Amino acid sequence: MKKNDLSPTRQKQLVPVTTHSGAFAVVPPTPPRFIPSKGIIKEVIHAHEALGELRVSTARLPNPNLVTRTFDRREAVRSSQIEGTSSDINQLFTYEATGSDEGLPADVLVTLNYVKALEVGLNLVRDRGQLAVDETLIKELHRNLMNGTDYRGGIGEYREIQNWIGGSKIYQARFVPPTAEHVPNCMKELINFLHNVPAEEDMYEVPLVIRLAIAHAQFETIHPFVDGNGRVGRLLLPIMLAAEGYLPVYIAGYLKNYQQEYYDRLAGVQLREEWQLWIQFFATAVEESVKESIHTASALKNLLRQWEERIAEIKVRSDSAVNKLPQLLIGRPVVTARQVEAELGISFPAANNALIKLAEIGILNIPYEQQRNRTFVALEAIDILNSR
Asked: How far does the chain reach from its first CA to its final CA, in angstroms?
């Protein structure tokens, strides 16, 4: 990071990095509470309208919680892939179903950790609302995310060393976040911003989508942990929406598809405080992600209806496990007989027979190479989750 890469305002925020002679770090000020609306108002309005459409659309689903469960896992896969993991959604569901990583990528644990962290965060804000979004929550997200990994810092603790973004050495870095001693205060200011607490002289309430955009960029600018900052930053987005009473919106797919622009727009904020370009990009990401979620939820709803029609043709008893399985499979497209036994409260033979029956009519697929603890895969559901 060279001084001439920074805007004049950012240059005034530089402090020396005492552990690296001649290096400087940016200590960002309090997140801005007012952004000129020129150039962003259309995108922000569309994003807010999309959030309302998602609420209406999800209310029409037969079991929204099951659909949300699959969306949680798809978000975990996509957000982790931004950081370079290779696990896909089929492999994640398989790992959850079997508890074994045999034959799966080594980083599948990292992806499952993302799911666990997301569920922890969503449960906390559903219980406590906006007040749950604090430093304790952020550190808990990091603790769950890094559990069992070879993380080289204190898990769930702010860093005590200098980090940087890009480059093998700090002198080649694209951006250098604040020095460690400034991190706690920067995070305190960010938490106040998340709670929409205005300064005494400023009673302006920041619109939600703009607040989310600013919060994400500010978090990535602070980079409070040694590693895992990108994933924690993206974890916070659906959690903050849930804290405000909205349904979670998962935007990692859009960010992954436009990954270079995502990085460029963040760098624009970090280096030059180009907030408008970033908010414009972020608001579009929210709008397009909502559209994708509605499309996917509708496709899963239609698939469920098709499955029920296929089952009706084989004329099983109305209370049969075969009739109960389709809804379960929307939330768990990869299952074992033991899982079905536990979820439906039936015997193992009844669970196994029901799964085999669905395999016979083409709803489930059984991987040929499995002998023990075999999985049954709803490939049509997996294909929908992998689409777009």
From this structure: 36
Q: Is 296 helix (H, G, I), strand (E, B) or coil?
A: helix
Q: How many Å apart are CA 247 and CA 242, to the nearest integer? A: 6
Span 315-386 CATH architecture: Orthogonal Bundle (1.10)
CA dist 295 and 57 (Å) reads: 10
Is residue 170 a contact partner of residue 20, using CB atoms and an 8 Å limit? Answer: yes
Q: Which single residue is written with the structure tokens 């001439």?
A: 4
197's tokens: 């607490």
Angle, alpha carbons 187-240-188 (nearest 5°): 15
List, in sequence order, every residue forming a beta bridge with 175; answer none if it has no partner.
165
CA dihedral 13, 25, 30, 235 (to 10 degrees): 160
Residue 123's SS3 state is helix
Superfamily of domain 3-295: Fido-like domain (1.10.3290.10)
Separation of alpha carbons 140 and 44, rounded Å: 30
pLDDT in tens, 148-200: 888 777 899 999 999 999 999 999 999 999 999 999 999 999 999 988 765 55
> What are the residue ranges spanned by the domains of the chain?
3-295, 315-386
Q: Which of 10, 59, 24 is CA-nearest to residue 268?
A: 10
pLDDT digits (tens, 9 = 90+) for 263-307: 999 999 999 999 999 999 999 999 999 999 999 999 999 999 999
Report the SS3 class of residue 25. strand
Give strand pairing partners of 14. Answer: 26
Residues ≥6 apart with Cβ < 8 Å to 248? 68, 71, 72, 122, 238, 239, 241, 242
- Looking at residue 224, the DSSP 8-state letter turns out to be -
Phi, psi at 159, each rounded to 5°: -65, 150
Q: Say how far apart CA 359 and CA 91 lie, in whole Å.
A: 20
What one-letter code names the amino acid at 161? I
Helix orientation angle between 64-82 and 379-386, rounded to the nearest 10 degrees: 50
Please state the pTM of the whole predicted model: 0.92
Query: 194: how many CB neighbours lie within 10 A of its CB?
Result: 23
CA 239 distance to own-chain centroid: 9
Structure tokens that stand for 225 in this block:
């942990």
